[in-house]
Amino acid sequence: MIGGGITGLAAAYRLRELAAAREFPLEVHLLERSARCGGALETIRRDGFVIETGADSFLSEKPACAALAQRLGLGAELIPTREIYRKTYVVRAGQLVEIPPGFSLLAPAHLGPVFRSALFSPLGKLRIALEPYIAPRTSGDDESLESFVTRRLGREVLDRVAQALAGGIYTADPGRLSMSATMPRFVEMERRHGSVVKGMRAAAKARAANSDTSGARWSLFQSFKNGMATLPEALATRLGGSIRKGAEVISMSRKADNWRLALARGESIDADAVICAAPAYATSRIVAEIAPAAAKMLAEISYASAATVNLTFHESDFDGPPRAFGFVVPAAEHRRIIAGSFSSFKFEGRAPAGAILARAFVGGEMSRDMMSLSDDEMVTAVRDEFRALLGVSTAPGFAEVRRWPDSMPQYEVGHLARVAQIETSIAEIPAFAIAGAVYRGVGIPDCIRSGEAAADATFAKLSPQK
User: How many Å separate Cα 234 from the centre of its chain?
Assistant: First the structure.
């Protein structure tokens, strides 16, 4: 197993589960190049604060993460968002404006809240209202987020909402971000209903009907009482001595019926099968000799860098803080952060009584220059933005900066076709599989599902059923 992020940990644990269930003798080794496992799931627990330096939650509608947590005995640790604060704002002309209720990423389910919102101009509102009458696109070719949103809902929706919300997830350029790879449900809404607004209404009705028959709907996002690192920590504990840190794989070669992995320190390890859950650029180097065509395609996938800046405050430091999950910042606002969130409002137990834990997201594809700042300069930039947007000028109790270089794969137009070609090429390599955020989803459940699928396929080859 190459790579000790959540994908690699989930894959290694799944192999252990399968071997135990089938009573099959299997030795699993996980090689992680850094000094810690977990990738972007890192939690700092300090002075009563539970600080997420990477992902702070997972989407509950995708079952892989919650299912794995249950199998690990962590079900009681799962917590929902605090629904009383379930609001999100967007910066418009330097002010925080609430995103209309029912507006999801790029489209509304109902027009009433849109018409009452100060977010859009009269012409912008009229353009949104006309969306159900816009003829659907007949071509099945992929298109960019920018193209899709402007075609169906107009430029204002892109510039004032969609770019910022998508940027918060993918830190991407909307002119290059693939719709089919990142937001396929909206593409399907247009195909099925001829309109994303009609599709949103149908989805809202379906959710309401499901809630009526099955009780209150569970929180859309979930986390763990002691932070998202709870999951990789539990996996690492279960895997124990199978994990080897500081072990960077630089190449692979075939020796008889086995693989030989060459490590950066000059050592080598032999294996019957390999799952690679490293980033695309690292996977490209590893398979360069055995699959040059796949290596070339992997190397063409670009990545963006980002950082999180967590700040602690007293509630009295704010003149009425927006009691909400957070806010996003459109690129058109020309500010130095791409989003901000209030962890202590979003989840219970993230800060001591009377304190506020806030964090800002910096960098991404549209703001690469921010990554050249020092940590102190980054904190200063965030404080300046919080002062301008939130009115908080008091120095934070403390700050935690975490950089994630080359961490966000860019799902550019044509991404799924490229991934399909990579998978076809990789399938020709014996006893080898790939998994990770770079292929078919960047969310935590997507990564877990990817790792577990690779483990299932690998185990099936190692222990064919009679």
Answer: 20
- C-beta contacts of 207-211 below 8 A and 24+ residues apart: none
| CA dist 222 → 60, 109, 203, 205 (Å) | 6, 23, 21, 23
Taking a C-beta distance cutoff of 8 angstroms, is the pair 192, 199 a contact?
Answer: yes
One-letter amino acid for residue 417 of the chain: A
* Residue reference for tokens 């957070």: 326
Can you read off the two tokens belonging to residue 398?
């403390």
Prediction pTM value: 0.95
Tell me how crowded residue 263 is: count the other CB atoms within 10 A of its CB.
17
Q: Give dist(CA 175, CA 147) in Å, integer.
A: 7
Alpha carbon 123 to chain centroid distance?
34
Helix or strand or coil: residue 49? strand
Amino acid at 334: H
Burial of 250 (C-beta count, 10 Å sphere; 0-12/13-18/19+): middle
Q: Are 64 and 449 in contact (CB under 8 A)?
A: yes
How do residues 283-341 score in pLDDT, each as one tens digit? 999 999 999 999 999 999 999 999 999 999 999 999 877 789 999 999 999 999 999 99
Residues whose CB is less than 8 angstroms from the CB of residue 432 and which lie 6 or more positions away in sequence, other chains included: 252, 259, 273, 274, 275, 276, 287, 426
Residue-level pLDDT at 465:
63
Nearest partner of 408 among 305, 308, 323, 321, judged by Cα: 305
Written as six digits, the tokens of 449 are 């599902």
As a whole number, mean pLDDT of residues 131-138 equals 95
Would you call 13 exposed, middle or buried from its count of C-beta atoms within 10 A (0-12, 13-18, 19+)?
buried
CA distance 225 to 231: 11
Beta-bridge partner residues of 334 = none
Residue 325 burial (10 A CB sphere; 0-12, 13-18, 19+): buried
Give the Cα separation of 98 and 117 in Å (integer). Answer: 8
Give me the pLDDT at residue 322, please.
79
Q: How far apart are the first and last CA of the chain?
A: 26
Strands 303-314 and 399-409: what pairing? Answer: antiparallel
The CA distance from 36 to 312, in Å, is 25
User: CA torsion 181→453→464→250, rounded to 10°?
Assistant: 90
The residues that bridge with 251 in the sheet, in sequence order, are 262
Burial class (CB in 10 A: 0-12, 13-18, 19+), 104: middle
User: Which residue carries 């009269």 as its tokens?
Assistant: 122
